[in-house]
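anyone seen this seq b4? input:
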Amino acid sequence: MNSLIITCPSCGTKNRIPTSKQHLSPKCGKCGKQIPVSPQAIPVELGDADFQTFIAKSSLPVMVDFYSPTCGPCKAIAPLITKLSKDYLGKVIIAKIDTSSNPGTAMHYKIRGVPSLLFFKNGRMVDQIVGAPPEAQLRQKLNAMG
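predicted toks r here
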């Protein structure tokens, strides 16, 4: 899982912030004051262990790309997913989960084909696209959510 190292402006302590928790207003481990974090314009990599908590606690809508590293269409849309995470920064959180190493979440959401894109708002799944959709269709969904 990717992490950010952020220095607390109050006490100077370095804090490791997982990218999957950067939107949760992290606090310094030493002084307890809130650490200002600029969200990163990269898709958040999720796993079985943190998926449900991440979705439930997200203050923004979330689009999750269920993918497999060996899937051709998944590789084809990966640059688009990264581009969308930059374009929708602060409006919609773009996340990814590798179904081959996180089968529990994939089974929970009955993912039978990849790529599958699931859309969550207020902790609940509101839409799903199976396959690699065109950019315009994804933007339309994201604009409707954010």
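Helices lie at 51-57, 72-87, 103-108, 135-145. Strands lie at 3-7, 14-18, 44-46, 62-67, 93-98, 116-121, 124-130. kinda curious what u guys think
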